[in-house]
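Need a sequence for this fold. Nothing fancy.
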């Protein structure tokens, strides 16, 4: 293992000037070993006069091989790499894939997370899925990496689905079963449409219940993208969102989203510039209005991926 890491590190050093998105060497038993990762620094200025700095970083490591029968098998690791992290490993899982689809075993996201509809903006900076006042997009991603089993189907004429099962956490709970499906189609020259639906339930009852159902549509027309989404939380509250994005050039893109839930409204406007391959800078202005009270934030983020 040490030799594999050293060899991979050397390869990354050679490719560093080109900011390679992923490196690969041969691992044990002929397996391909891939190494990648990212680092993001963020500065946020709030309308109440406060400000904050934060960072996020991860290292991705995977091994995969294909059997004589054509079966692909592999393992994936996501390692936390910033000093503020409280865990060393974000995700770790193994998978088996073939013409039948892909089966994943281990500590990974719920299957429903793969069937969310996100605004076509810069999620890393505007926090569409953050649990803060400024993360208001209509999504229901559930970032639980408790060990589970998931299956993802191949595409059948544009249709695909996935389902995951997580064992009950207590004797009086049910298993957490989540899933989703999507349909993608090209309706005209340069016009693509994707429809998504996802359902999540944590298997608990009463005040501990956490469930949601979401639906969304993603329309791509050349350099323009528009998304619509709605999500119901615990069958009680619903949120709707509209997102828009435009790619101005290979290096510059802009986006916006608007969302509403009851008396609360969110808005976000962002722009991202590719400084060099793998190096991006993002500027976003996010706002929230809650029962007549307005607040906003200005976010600058610079990130590198390899």
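Here you go.
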């Amino acid at each position: 293992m040490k030799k594999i890491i050293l060899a991979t590190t050397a390869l990354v050093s050679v490719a560093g000037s080109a900011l390679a998105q992923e490196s690969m060497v041969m691992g044990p038993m002929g397996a391909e070993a891939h190494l990648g990762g990212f680092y993001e620094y963020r500065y946020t200025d709030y309308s109440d006069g406060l400000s904050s700095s934060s960072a996020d970083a991860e290292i991705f490591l995977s091994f995969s091989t294909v059997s004589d029968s054509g079966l692909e098998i592999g393992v994936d690791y996501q390692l936390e790499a910033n000093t503020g992290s409280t865990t060393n490993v974000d995700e770790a899982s193994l998978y088996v894939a073939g013409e039948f689809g892909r089966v994943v075993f281990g500590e990974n996201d719920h299957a429903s997370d793969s069937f969310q509809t996100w605004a076509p903006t810069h999620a890393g900076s505007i926090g569409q899925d953050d649990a803060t006042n400024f993360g208001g997009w209509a999504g229901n991603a559930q970032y639980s990496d408790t060990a589970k089993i998931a299956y993802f189907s191949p595409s059948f004429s544009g249709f695909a689905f996935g389902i995951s099962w997580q064992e009950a956490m207590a004797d009086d709970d049910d298993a957490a079963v989540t899933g989703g499906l999507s349909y993608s189609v090209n309706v005209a020259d340069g016009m693509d449409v994707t429809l998504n639906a996802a359902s999540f339930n944590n298997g608990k009852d009463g005040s501990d219940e956490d469930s949601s159902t979401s639906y969304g549509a993603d329309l791509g027309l050349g350099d323009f993208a528009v998304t619509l989404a709605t999500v119901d939380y615990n069958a009680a509250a619903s949120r709707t969102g509209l997102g828009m994005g435009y790619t101005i050039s290979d290096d510059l893109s802009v986006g916006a989203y608007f969302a509403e839930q009851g008396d609360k409204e969110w808005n976000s406007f962002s722009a991202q510039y590719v400084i060099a391959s793998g190096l991006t800078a993002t500027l976003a202005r996010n706002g929230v209005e809650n029962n007549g009270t307005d607040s906003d934030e200005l976010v600058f983020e610079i990130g590198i991926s390899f």
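For context: Helices lie at 2-15, 123-126.
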